Amino acid sequence: MPATIRLATATDAPRWLDLLKSTLGTDYPAKEIYDPVWIARELEIASGHETWVAEVDGRPNASIPVLKPPSPNATPTANPPRPPHPPSPTGTSAANPSNARFPPNTW
Fold it and tell me: What's this model's pTM, rounded to 2 decimal places?
């Protein structure tokens, strides 16, 4: 089944939380990431951040946030953190989105 890549919205908060828990469990030190209200606020474009999700059949399989810089920057560079994604069903890292390779000069 092909994945759909799209910008997340506040309504994705419950499904994004499920994805997060399947990746990090429930003991991550920054406890606000488990709060659906906090998640919904962060997923809104008004937060200044963008979170993209890859979903299959309406269920997020991976996401990647693009965070706004803390202050204006003359030379902005996207530096996304490691995105949450569930373990590969094959037991390898081949399906891991963070293993994606981009052709030279695509950035």
Answer: 0.65
